[in-house]
Amino acid sequence: MAAFDSQVPQPVVIIGAGLAGLTVALHLAERYPVVVLAKRGLEDGATAWAQGGIAGVLGDDDSIESYIDDTLDAGAGLVNDNTARFVAEHSAQAIEWLVEQGVPFSADPAGPLGLHLTREGGHAVRRIAHAADATGRAIHNTLLDAVRRHDNVRLLERWMAVDVITSRHVRRDEPLRCYGAYALDIARQRVETLPAKAVVLATGGVGKVYRYTSNPDTATGDGIAMAWRVGCRAGNMEFIQFHPTCLYHPQERSFLITEALRGEGGQLKLPDGTRFMADHDDRLELAPRDIVARAIDFVMKKYGLDHVWLDATHLGADLLKERFPTIYARCLKLGIDITKQPIPVVPAAHYTCGGVVTDLSGRSDLPGLYAVGETGYTGLHGANRLASNSLLECVVLGRVCASDILERAADAPTPLPPWDESRVENADEQVVIAHNWDELRLLMWNYVGIVRTTKRLERALRRIDLLRSEIDDYYANFRVTRDLLELRNLVDCAELIVRSALTRRESRGLHYSRDFPLALPVSFPTVLVRPTGRRH
After folding, report:
1. Helix (H, G, I), strand (E, B) or coil at 525
2. Among the options 154, 289, 399, 441, which is catalytic?
3. How confident is the model at residue 8 (pLDDT cuts 50, 70, 90)?
4. What is the per-residue pLDDT across 481-499, written as a single tens digit (0 to 9) for each?
């Protein structure tokens, strides 16, 4: 692809077109060319699915210290204090920037910045700016429009990164660094070489490694797996947040019922109408997500239930229709009138609290390679993410990441080898990929879910090793496709989750083990280092 061969200066390649990637792109584009890759449509990432909102210290009844305390409490002792303070101190600036971009937040003339603030689980006060119950979509659409208007940004839909290009590929005798990426042009089924000043991994999390998830199909851990394969550390991968309330319906397996519905007073109930959260936490439905998810999992297993009920009928039809129009319309389409009926809900894999180990500028262990948003691990979320900290992290750290890239001088372009397909052929059938995909997601759900045991984890690891062998053999012999690349990344991430879980011999935050039900007096993040010489 000639457009990339001699471009001067070399662009920054951003892999992922969600809030993290677009934030980096917009802060870079005034001074530097940018290429943004989206492996499906530009609107298909996880950002657009975020309903609740973005947290920030805005109100007179709030403070930096209160926000930090809530983040630390939710993170169960594993939050990095410096990261939490940095993000909290820059939270108002982040929301102000979004307002300047034109994000149509819900208004309240009496509120700070003229915004209506709501409250979610784990927060001491109302500090969540939102756009009704479709905040992520409102933010994403606004920033995407801004990026589309920018001459310095090139958007590539249906392009999926295959791997990061390092010094090993160019056979240079030097410390490892990033030179670009190989990427599959899905429409043409051709892998191209993309030289880059820097590569930013903003591919989101790994929710699709589980059978039930609130995440879109794009959440296959691509950035985490690519960074791991080139030697970057992975942190806290055992902490997979299961959102307590995903709609339970055969036609809608990934529709999230926002935490803000509980923040406004929604109540979790058994089929007979009995509330049960009082038996699990004094904060009731506003307890942190790990506690609520485990409580639901407990009563479902105790009473043999397929789901529980989230009842908001007492809030009144006017409030529900105005505050939660998306949920009201979607549920009504399925025959559920939330103004008159409780909503059937079940926990589902929702957010990856761990990821590629980075500093606050998004720098990974490999020079020139950055990770931002859900792909990265800075210690902000600890053992459990506080609600509405995810969008905030994308904006705050996306800006700092762009600043760091801009401050670094560009190296002279280095010729990069083309992708080698000389020893592969077209696959004769896809059933191997489909079967292994299903098996992986089912075993992760059954063995590495909300409640874990050592035996289940060990059983999962053995199966993952076998699946990896089959996938590696397939990858070595056939041309790559999006499905194959996603499966390859998912199995890498599954192994990271399981190995991290086996390492943690306690229960803390999102990781609950029946074999080690108590938390240790002192605990530390789980950081995995890739063994040297391992095939990738």
Report:
1. coil
2. 289
3. low
4. 999 999 999 999 999 999 9
